[in-house]
Amino acid sequence: MLIPIKWLKEYVDIDDVDTRELADKLTMSGSHVDSIEKIDKGVEKVVVGKILEINPHPNADKLVITNIDIGDETLQIVTGATNIKVNDYVPVAIVGAELPNGMKIKKSKLRGEVSRGMLCSASELGIREDLISKELKDGIYILNEEYPLGQDIREALGLRGEIIDFEITPNRSDCLSIIGMARETAATFSKKLNYPEIAIKNETGDIKNTIKNIEVENKDLCNRYYAKVIENVEIKPSPMWIKRKLIESNIRPINNIVDITNYVMLELGQPIHAFDLDKINGNDIIIRNAKENEKITTLDGVERKLSEDMLVIADNKNPIAIAGVMGGENTEVDENTKNILIESANFNGRNIRLTAKKIGLRTDASAKYEKDLDPNISDQACKRVCQLIEMIDSGNIIDGNFDIYSNKTEEFIIKLRPKKANEMLGVELSDEYMIDVLNSLELKSYKKEDHIEVNIPTFRSDINIETDLVEEVGRIYGFHNIKSEPLIGVLTKGVKSKRRKIEDTIKNSLTGMGLNEITTYSFISPKSYDKISLEKNSIKRKNVEIMNPLGDDYSVMRTTLISNTLDVLSRNYKYSVKKAWTYEIGNVFIPKDSDKIILPTENKTLTIGMYGKTDFFYLKGMLNNLFSILGIKDVEYIVEENNNSFHPGRCANIIYGDIDLGVIGEIHPDVLNNYGLKEKTYVSEINLDILSSITNLDKKYKELPKYPAITRDIALVVDEDILVKEIQDIIKQNSGDLVESINLFDIYKGNQIPENKKSVAYSIIYRAKDRTLKDEEVSQVHEKIVEKLINNLNASLRD
């Protein structure tokens, strides 16, 4: 936001404030300054002159000889300009002048004729070409008013002073104007803000005789539409004071009507648009959504295709403007315009932003509208335009207006607790000081009991809660004035929780065993439960549905990780990965009864999935190794035959005491087919919350054995359906305290073994802690074990 200091001074008295001080203090109060630029840009010894004579050059067809009156003398200047005439007032660079482009003017001869200076174009005075009106772009800058001859051109054209470029944050739409920044300046320097007096002196006629009706069809996108009519308009160049302010604010002057609408937009922050009333078809104006593929040629001469989500201003036939973005070429104000309609409206900021982006046209108006402007300023801005048109005698103001205001924005009150504000800021400010600060920002405040009641004006849409008011007090007081203090608190040593340590141990262990960690989405498709053949009445089918899902494939929260794991394995298999070993630690989500308001229970789950160069016992060995690392002993595997996701007879529940930890098994062939897997696949799913509760990461060491061990092997022939666990249980129950370990080293079925039988071979290690065992003592225990195995399992010793 460019703010000319001279313009700012019209509303707040800061003549005693240096520009650098102004910039610094406004930055400290929250209005960040990007840059400061001088207006004159090095113009020296350029004065106002009047052309007295123009004579042909005797030696050059394209040059002329002029006599220029600069007040105290008349200069002969040779020029090639073609846009000058006698009695024009022009800028004259006299001998010794220095221009912004580095040119130095010297006395010279051009084709034999003396030239004692140079007539200047606008660009040679440091004015950007894109800011110069069309009639002045090519040739000498012709002054449209009479000025004292010999006057410094900087004084005549207002080329003195400085411009501050402010970076305005998106939430401060009230600062996107000269008045807005004047308000900030007045509060920062404890000065009075002087608003322009907006009053129309003379109104004639009746607006109903010019426009029959204005209708707003979409009140959600157009909250307010205010309009007035001006007749007998005279289109002409604007006065220099208007032109200068526009140029200094980076806007090119066009004509008096368009310039005034831009002037008011800069001054008050409300975009204004002027329509040529005589070019509007019919007597009605409709603010509506565009029709699909409807077209309009905008003021920049480009035909643009519209869509139904865009808002347009239309007459009885066609759109005449894209609301909040740009007017249409079909109602453009030009040199033949006699009657105009002034529009001052309030549009939905989000819709304006999306429209401008979609059609690729971002204008000064759309940039302001997209910040959600105050609708209560629309009428004042429109009246200000009429006032200025009347002031420069450019038209007759018609009495009356149209004001469609569907949802009036009202002021509201927020309570500020001074004690709370001081605690948050870390200072001791009086209640009276806070009230003065807030009032200086036009936040009308007064003391009531133990708090301050603050009336929030509609132009401060960024203030919604008490903390916002604390910030207002703090920034005007000056955050730099608040003493920095160290934080007070007890420092604690940052350590990982027990749960985190357990998870890290599990990840490190499984990664060390050759598995790869995967991470999958927490939301899945309800069809996943069918793919893993989950029972119809399974509690795992009771899940949490997502209110705004990305699609049916991501519409419910998972209650198991098995489907996610099989998805990953299937994807790898389809990519011809020969071996895939994975694990995932993630949450499953279990709803609490039928109450959808209460958040579901989140259970941490560990799932291992693998195919290629593996089998059931390999996975079981990994789990046993993991349990050992976690300090968990005596885990049992109980056959499970009612889990449809797994192969019957190749699935087991993992049990610790009477606690069900999870499941392990080979995936059912039908499930593999659902996922396109043609390799035997093994999966284990474990409740990590329960596993963590029984984990003991403390390591206890015992001394190395002092006495030798005795090893006895035993080979049994048992029924094929006898589980290895049944054999090991009998050995443990009858070993006393002498058996140190039991190691299964062979399972055999073959020609030498009867049908429906198998041979199972164990190596049993015997050792005593306090003595050397005798062979007879070991034999006695060993024979007892053999006897129990034979009797209980109908087993026989293998020869």
Describe the structure.
There is one protein chain. The chain has a seven-stranded mixed sheet, sandwiched between helices. Strands 11, 13, 14, 21, 22 and 23 form a six-stranded mixed sheet that branches. Strands 5-4-3-6-9 form a five-stranded antiparallel sheet. With 799 residues, it is an alpha+beta fold. It folds into six domains: 2-36 and 167-188, Phenylalanyl-tRNA Synthetase, Chain B, domain 1 (2-Layer Sandwich); 44-156, Beta Barrel (OB fold (Dihydrolipoamide Acetyltransferase, E2P)); 203-405, Phenylalanyl-tRNA Synthetase, Chain B, domain 3 (3-Layer(bba) Sandwich), CATH 3.50.40.10; 412-481, Phenylalanyl-tRNA Synthetase, Chain B, domain 1, CATH 3.30.56; 498-693, BirA Bifunctional Protein, domain 2 (2-Layer Sandwich), CATH 3.30.930.10; 710-797, Alpha-Beta Plaits. The relative contact order is 0.06. A hairpin with an 8-residue loop joins strand 37 (739-748) and strand 38 (757-766). Helices cover 26% and strands 29% of the residues. The protein has 21 helices and 39 strands. The longest helix is centred in the last third of the chain and has 19 residues, at 775-793. Helix 7 packs across helix 10 and helix 11 (418-425) crosses helix 13.
Estimate the strand proportion.
25-35%
List the strand order in the largest sheet. 27-30-31-35-34-33-32
How big is the Rg?
Answer: 44 Å
Number of domains: 6
Poorly predicted segments: none
Largest sheet entry: 7 strands, mixed
Alpha-beta classification: alpha+beta
Write the CATH fold name of the largest domain.
Phenylalanyl-tRNA Synthetase, Chain B, domain 3
User: Averaging pLDDT over every residue, what do you get?
Assistant: 91
CATH-level-4 superfamily name of the largest domain = Phenylalanyl-trna Synthetase, Chain B, domain 3
How far is the first residue's CA from the last residue's CA?
A: 100 Å
Amount of helix:
25-40%
CATH class of the largest domain: Alpha Beta
Overall form: elongated
| Continuous helix count | 21
